[in-house]
Specification:
The chain has about 260 residues and is α+β, with helices and mostly antiparallel strands. It has two domains: about 120 residues, no CATH class; about 140 residues, no CATH class. About 25% of the residues lie in helices and about 30% in strands. A hairpin with a 4-residue loop joins strand 11 and strand 12. Helix 1 packs antiparallel against helix 2. The two termini are about 20 Å apart. The relative contact order is 0.20.
Length: about 260
């Protein structure tokens, strides 16, 4: 019964963390470029009362054994990088990535971060920046007098100036991808950073030979959170928590019965 108490307590703790993860997903259901997380669990160590395969006689072996588990724990909440739905906007600097890849963002510290959110604006110097003012890498600068800004699928940014018909190029957007995107470190603000688990980034032009996706102008990628799926997960997590609490109550009642025997 001691095992039952601690196993049930570990189950309650795991489901509590599961609900925390679901709450985070639901809170970001309208966050542009957000990628949901899936909580993952594993069972804890086992106490082997009878080891499977141990000898039960001179010529026989125990076929199954008797092993009592000690509960569960949360091990990770992996990022799910499925494509979110596209939403059209009136901003010519809004971009989506059709396929794999991340936009590269230069942080104030000088290091690079990566994002799927393509909501860009121009700062006072005409540089394409995020809503936090962090510039796109490599830098794309568009003159204040520019008209008819166009961004091609391969990331080429061009514009026209007043009284001119020929377009001029402001640069080309590059994307990055990782061998294991799930290993990226989340900073918040729709930003990720590289880790040893993610591997080194592969940088190239959109739609190039590196397997990177293409970009589309005038759209943003919505969150990939499925509200229906998250509510189902929430119900399952809540019922799992309640079931584990019932085990605690049952073990407590069994202890009470044992204590009553001595009276």
């Amino acid at each position: 019964m001691i095992r039952a108490l601690y196993s049930a307590a570990s189950g309650m703790s795991a489901q509590e963390m599961n609900v925390d993860n679901i709450a985070h997903n639901l809170a970001n259901a309208s966050t542009v470029g957000f990628k949901s997380r899936r909580a993952e669990f594993q069972d804890l160590m086992y106490q082997s009362v009878v080891q499977p395969g141990s000898a039960s006689g001179q010529q026989t072996l125990v076929p199954a054994g008797l092993q009592l588990g000690l509960g569960t724990r949360a091990t990770s909440n992996a990022i799910v990088f499925t494509q979110g739905a596209f939403s059209e906007t009136d901003n010519p600097l809004d971009l989506v990535i059709q396929g794999k890849g991340f936009f590269q963002i230069r942080l104030p510290s000088g290091s690079l971060a990566y994002t799927r959110s393509g909501t860009f604006q121009l700062d006072k110097d005409g540089n394409m920046v995020t809503s936090d003012g962090n510039p796109l890498e490599p830098a794309i600068t568009i003159p204040a007098a520019a008209q008819a800004v166009s961004i091609a699928g391969d990331g080429t940014v061009s514009y026209t100036l007043p009284n001119q018909t020929a377009s001029q190029q402001a640069g080309q957007i590059q994307l990055a991808n990782f061998p294991n995107p799930g290993g990226l470190n989340s900073l918040g603000g729709n930003l990720y950073t590289q880790t040893d688990a993610s591997g080194d980034p592969t940088v190239g032009t959109p739609g190039g030979q590196e397997g990177l996706g293409t970009v589309m102008q005038g759209y943003v990628e919505q969150s990939n959170v499925s509200i229906v799926e998250e509510f189902v997960n929430l119900i399952v997590a809540q019922r799992g928590y309640e079931a584990n609490s019932k085990v605690v109550q049952a073990a407590d009642q069994m202890y009470q019965q044992i204590n009553n025997l001595s009276k």
